[in-house]
Amino acid sequence: MEPGPVVIIGVLARVDVATRGDTRLRLERLEGVSTFDLASPDKLGVLIEASDVDAAHATLQQQVGHTPGVLAVWPVSIESDGFEPRESNESQNG
Amino acid sequence: MTTSRRDFLRASATFAVASVADGVVPAAARALPRTDVEWVKSVCRFCGTGCGVMLGIRDRRLVALRGDPEHPTTKGLVCAKSLFLPKIVAAENRLRTPMIRKDGTLQPASWDEAMSRVADEFARAIEQSGPNSVAYYGSGQALSEESYFANRLFKGGIGTNNVEGNPRLCMASAVGGYVSTFGKDEPMGCYDDIEHAKVFFLVGSNTAECHPVIFDQILARKQAHRDVLVVVCDPRRSPVMSIADIHLDPIPGYDLAVYHAMAQVIVSEKRHDAEFIERHCQFKIVEGGAPKNVDFSTYARWLDENFTPARAEQISGVPAERIVQAARLFAIGPTLSFWTMGLNQRTTGVWANNLIHNLHLITGQIGKPGATPFSLTGQPNACGGVRDTGSLCHILPYGRSVTNAQHRGEMEALWGAAEGKIPSQPGLNTIEMFRALARDEIRAMLVLTTNPGQSLPNLHAYRDAMGKPRAKKPFLCVIDAYPTRTTELADVVLPAAMWTEKSGVFGMSERRYQYQPHVCDAPGEARPDLEVLFDLAQRLEARGVVKRGFSAKLRTVDDVWDEMRQASKDTAYDFTGMTRERLQRERGLRWPCPTESHPGTARRYVKGEDPCLDRGPYADSSLMDGELKFYGAPEHRAIVWLRPADGPAEPVDDQYPMVLSTGRVLEHWHTGTMTMEAPELRRAYPECYVEIHPDDARRLGVRTGQPVRIVSRRGEAVIKARVVAMPRPGMVFVPWHWADEASLINYVTIDAYDPGSKQPEFKVCACRLEKL
Ligand code: SF4
């Protein structure tokens, strides 16, 4: 059994073909990140798994997006068991 | 959660990525289809790119979202903002119950109590001060049916043209440009043109951050084709510079000379398309307040006398040789121009739009694959919802004008309004409407799905107009899904359902109308805006200020859509063929689409593509397929305008020596009402900042992170400096998403507006910086 909620962001990454292997290894070393092949060599599928959307997005923006060899990242899917409100008291509006 | 549950989520995400990337789905993902959710197609709630999304719904809750790989133009790509939509919609901060201000504070009330108060206030104002004492201020985020019905109620029911919306702040100059050049609003091209263009002219558009999925398509085209070139015209080195081959960086507000000089190069080097000009263009100059016809040789001479590249360099600061290079590329084409607020939010916005159209017309770079002028929109439904439905003070649905008696008669007949009910003069435009509110002449105002308490320029004046306590303070009702800087000023606040919680149509930048389904329940007592407007109409009928039965034939959102289709019939917008069932089934349709078997129109004005040239009032059987006809323009010839190259309303001077320009960042959207609800997006940019060029920072002795005071003739803001070589020297740039008092940059901006489009000049005002 898993301890808590899970959010998975599916990412299409454009990668430098020449360094694709190294890029993939670097990505796989990141916590919560796994990769899979796509038909085009200049693209890589990336899954980011975290306890909530914010943590997954932080991994995407701060780590996956800055990994050497990654040219651009497109988060094309988000999957979870639900998006119940949390941290809502941080809002600065109103 | 069990391990297999997680495996299902992983397989589902893998499936989504693979479908977008190349359609080859790994076996592991195919083996574990996510069957616990129902996938429903919809459209992103944010920008005018209009990305198709798939919503994963379980138990009327949104549990997954992916780009829709079957979407014909966005093809499954979405940007980070849309990933947060499920969370933003579920935010605790949503408004859940109506509120009425009592003893100075907003207090919960029943719907009946709140709606009675709203109806009483509007009825009293209309009875005591006439229909023009009330006003509606809507939004490019409302659904088309909502904007259409509000417009119908105010113009045809109450009898006032005081109907405006926030698109006045973002795209009115684009409307003015299209109408004054081609006779009809809205782009003639489409996103498919990206696949064919060889030259992209990005003018005043931070496409990379504001329309990221469009930007990716340009990027992909450039990566795949080495001969694709990008010309950027922007005084700020925004992220689009990553793909720029030529950068034109005019002094803010002085770019019109650059476009004329490009035309001068094209004409003097004989790179123009003489045959196209002969068949499709006319030339006009305004003299003595009236437009006067001139010929091509006069235009050529006028350009030579006034706008050589050397002269344009003196005016704009852009090196002449770069203007020459850009002009030569433009003429080669196929050239696709994209622009947004940098061109529109100006006191010369309509002229600037005209000059981009001029370049396309004199080179014939229009009406063929990859060649078109294309204004992008910032909101999801500014086009379909506000422009097309005529929900502004001077227009009526689908290209009609309030000043045209026949047009008024057509709408009065369709709406069942008394003859002469729609006033024959335009109502108050946005700035004048809020000025009238400040003078207490507008006695009751309804604001729907927008936040003028943060987004209007010269904000002190208009926040006071909306909220300052005074003896005869006008009544303000605000409908929104979240608390905002405007709801805090309201007398009544009504909680709104949003996005997945109601159904309707969004119309995005390329004339594509897309259906958004109702798949989730709204929180608390929140209601769809259309229900609230229906309720208000009935209560105003009961109070005798709207004709009894005026809205009786419209009971559902589908009824409203059917009336809208009728209103579009035989206009240039004709979307009679877009039945509800079709829109539910298909990935949006581009108008014109006059029959249920018509596939929608990629390019307007082109015989064989635009059905308006085959049937109806604009039909022309003498044309061959592929031939062009600007059927909306006088004598069917588009107008090349000889416009002055005036500068901004408020030039810099010794007291205010810098230029302030405002804009956006990738993670946030407009006043932050939605995106600030996502903690990670908020953390990405926790506070406002002002970009200052290193030369200016050195002179001022300011370093990154230090607070500076930005002062104009209207107000000030205190914001931390970010020293970066992005704005031109002499210019500062501030994003306008933050709601805290010190960061309200619109206290500083100017409310001078374009005399044609009435759009304020957010992009240029004079300011000074004070180190704190
Ligand atoms: S580009 Fe615009 S429409 Fe597309 S996902 Fe991003 S915000 Fe939404």
CATH architecture of the largest domain in chain B: 3-Layer(aba) Sandwich
Helix content of chain A: 10-25%
The overall strand count of chain A is: 4
Determine the number of helices of chain B (DSSP H or I, runs of at least 4 residues).
27
Ligand types: iron/sulfur cluster
- What percent of residues of chain B are in strands? 15-25%
Question: Structural class from helices and strands of chain A?
Answer: alpha+beta
Read across the widest sheet of chain A, the strand sequence of neighbours is: 2-3-1-4
User: What's the structural domain tally of chain A?
Assistant: 1
- Quick one: CATH class of the largest domain in chain B? Alpha Beta
Level-1 CATH class name of chain A: Alpha Beta
Distance between the termini of chain B: 53 Å
Description:
The complex is a heterodimer of chains A (94) and B (772). Chain A is an alpha+beta fold and 94 residues long. Chain A has one domain (7-80): Alpha-Beta Plaits. Chain A has helices at residues 20-29, 53-63; strands at residues 7-15, 33-37, 43-50, 70-80. Chain A has a four-stranded antiparallel β-sheet with strand order 2-3-1-4. Chain A is elongated, with a radius of gyration of 15 Å. The mean pLDDT of chain B is 94. Chain B contains 27 helices and 29 strands. Chain B is an alpha/beta fold and 772 residues long. In chain B, helix 8 (172-182) packs across helix 17 and helix 11 (256-268) packs parallel to helix 17. In chain B, a hairpin with a 4-residue loop joins strand 26 and strand 27 (716-723). Chain B has four domains: 5-89, Phosphorylase Kinase, domain 1, CATH 3.30.200.210; 99-167 and 381-481 and 505-550, Rossmann fold; 172-375, Dimethylsulfoxide Reductase, domain 2; 658-749, Barwin-like endoglucanases. Classes of the chains: A alpha+beta (94), B alpha/beta (772). Chains A and B meet through strand 1, strand 2, strand 3, helix 2 and strand 4 of A and helix 1, strand 3, helix 4 and helix 26 of B. Strand 4 (70-80) of chain A pairs antiparallel with strand 3 of chain B. The site of iron/sulfur cluster (SF4) has 13 residues of chain B, from helix 3 and helix 10.
